[in-house]
Amino acid sequence: AAGGGWRCCRGVDGNALRWCITGALCASFLGLGMSIAVLGPTFPNLAANVRKNVSDIYYIFVGRSLGYLGGSVVGGVLFDCMNASLLLALSMLATTAGLYGIPWCKEALLLTVLMSVIGGSMGILDTGGNVLALNTWGSEVGPHIQALHFSFAAGAFLAPILAKMALGGYESEELPEAEKTNQSVLKSVPTASAASPTPAPKDHHEDFLWSYIIIGTYILLISIFFFVFYAKGSSAQDKAKASGQKGKLAKHHWTLIGLLFVFFLFYVGAEVTYGSYVFTYAMVFAEMTESEAAALNSVFWGAFATCRGLAIFGAAFLYPGTMILMSLLSSAASSSALAFFAHYRISLWVGTAVYGASMATIFPSGISWIEQYTVVEGKSAALFVVGAALGEMCIPAVVGYLQGRFHHIPVVMYTAFATSVITVLLFPVMYKLANAPQDDDSKEVSDTETCRALLSNSRLTEDEEDEEDVRDWNDADFEVIEMNDKLKNSPTERYRKIPEDSPAEISLQPHLDNVLGDSPVVVEGSPGRQNGNVDWEKS
User: Fold this and answer.
1) CB half-sphere exposure, 455, CA atoms < 13 A
2) So where does this one cross the membrane (predicted)?
């Protein structure tokens, strides 16, 4: 009983530890979202701090994006060979160091280097956080990974507010694409609003500095929890759990990972592209006022954040595949309305809201879905994140280039429709590959069925032979018993029955007497026959 109580307490402690890990991961992704989004409202201040125009330092986005890609790849490799909690804690320390150093950076090149360091550390955190959540909860990860990505969206929402408070209400121009992103990377090519050379006044330097200090301190505090988890060895247990699932690899594991890489590339690219250019589209093509265009942009991101929060509860009773299918169908319908009926105001507003809501759950649901069919390790998660980052970098840049070449075509709407069609076509292919039977499993099943069939046939043959032997013995015993009954009758009774018997029976009786009397071979057949012979002799 004491042992059972100890195991129960240990189970309770393990479950509490899993919830603590989830809470720390959500807090870290909140800081991750703030670290990403704070660059937008403070971008003019950074330009003034390095004595450059806003249009001259766009390459810091490229530096951070490249650092993020490199961090995702390196983090995926390191996560498979070292403690996850320690790796996440160290990456958060690197993010803190970069955030602390940015306000005092006076050189554009040094600022780009710091941005690359921050991007690399955030790539490690993004990759490792998803895998650690999978290893911690396994098949129950759905609501938790939705909460993880909702925390990122909440951080991206809070960062501009925090920056505005730190700047004391100073109205600085923001990068539209810096406000919100699905993953953890900003697009590398700034939009027109970012190119306007409006450096911030120098007397706001200290105010702008505090927004980075606050976010960096918050991330530093969260990193302490991961050092505590490392001391408790929780990640080692998760690694052991993950290593125990090695045999769960799907038949087409790397094909699935590659297709999901492409899937996330188009999905994230479409989301960031629409969020970045819908403001411009509303003013140029829909002829809206600036306030109306800003409201339309807010509707998109508001629906996105709201639906991502609701998905935490929806994932508790809906399968990830169901959530993906619902999102893909909604995005296809809304993008069709936006591409072909956006000239109607109601279609533009409703389509934007539905499109934002449909894009909210695809990325976390995709990770939960693939985990049901194969093992998601560090390298696999790194490919997911790299695909999302490439889509976030490349597709908005391509759309911006095409929109500049074809001024009268709403490229952003046609891009939303095309990417929706691509993702809708990719998902059934991935589903088919994920459910392909394993060759070894089918061979083992066929071998087992063959063995069972052979065993059942052999048992059936033996049983049939035994039944035939028993039948023969019973027939022989029954014949002897009949003959014994007839022989036990007295001669007088036999002769009385002669008139009643048929001639065949009369002629057969002496023959039977002769056979029983002259054939010792028949007597040796069975014990019943021996007893019958003894009775005949006594009579």
Assistant:
1) 6
2) 16-37, 57-79, 86-102, 108-135, 147-167, 209-231, 252-279, 324-342, 348-370, 382-402, 408-429
Same domain, 305 and 384: yes
Q: Are 94 and 123 in contact (CB under 8 A)?
A: no
115 and 255 both lie in a single domain: no
State the total domains in the chain: 2
Q: What would the pLDDT profile of 8-39 be if each residue is shown by its tens digit? A: 444 546 788 888 999 999 999 999 988 887 87
121-140: pLDDT as tens digits? 988 998 888 888 888 887 78
pLDDT reported for residue 207: 60
> In terms of domains, do 229 and 302 share one?
no
Task: Specify the pLDDT at position 534.
Answer: 38
pLDDT reported for residue 351:
94
Alpha carbon separation from 128 to 136, 215, 392 (Å, rounded): 12, 20, 20
Q: How many other C-beta atoms lie within 10 A of the C-beta of residue 156?
A: 26
What one-character-per-residue DSSP string does 379-426 give?
A: HHHHHHHHHHHHHHHHHHHHHHHHHHH-TTS-HHHHHHHHHHHHHHHH
Beta strands in 175-317 (DSSP E): none
Query: Do 146 and 361 touch, CB atoms closer than 8 A?
Result: yes
Task: Specify whether 154 is located in the same domain as 277.
Answer: no
The angle subtended at Cα 257 by Cα 251 and Cα 259, nearest 5°, is 105
Asked if residue 175 lies in contact with residue 190, where contact means CB atoms within 8 angstroms, the answer is yes
Q: Does 457 reside within a domain?
A: no
Q: Would you tell me the crossing angle of helices 362-371 and 142-166 to the nearest 10 degrees?
A: 150
- Residues recorded for the chain: 539
- What CATH number does residue 154 fall under? 1.20.1250.20
Residue 113 CA: distances (Å) to CA of 41, 73, 102: 20, 18, 10
Same domain, residue pair 68 and 141 = yes
